[in-house]
Amino acid sequence: MEMNNNVERAGQSRAAGPRHSILDLAPLELECLSVLWPMGEGTVRDIHRALTATRPRAYTTVMTIMDRLEQKGIVARKKVGRAFLYQAKLSAEEARLKAVEKIVEGFFDGSPAALAAHLSSLGGVAREYLPPAPAAVDAPGTPVADLPTQNLDERLL
Fold this sequence. Notes:
With 157 residues, this protein is mostly helical. Helices cover 50% and strands 8% of the residues. The protein folds into two domains: 89 residues, Winged helix-like DNA-binding domain superfamily/Winged helix DNA-binding domain (Arc Repressor Mutant, subunit A), CATH 1.10.10.10; 41 residues, no CATH class. The protein is elongated and about 50 Å long.
């Protein structure tokens, strides 16, 4: 009987609300959310169908992932007929903002300016991760050093 009470209490604490950071999600959990956000709400079948377009996955895998997201408090679900209808508890924009806030707090001592300085200092390193910049139309032979640079607006961070 004692064990059943512990299991019951554990289930109640799971449903209390979002406990995990968006950065703590596994890649497939984030993929499922990325599919769910534009839908607004959807069933496992809807999410599975959208994910299968890019990479085949088992229906039961998607079902497990959505159940885990609900247990973590990231999505809400309600029974509709025989299926569950899932809805994200935070928007994609809210998730991005929370992720950036966590990065700023964890790596930049809470300073958005420090993050902006870090990103602008990457220079050539950042180019390894970004697609090549389009060539300047007006001056095809202009050296990169002579092209105007754009400063980051700290108000956006």
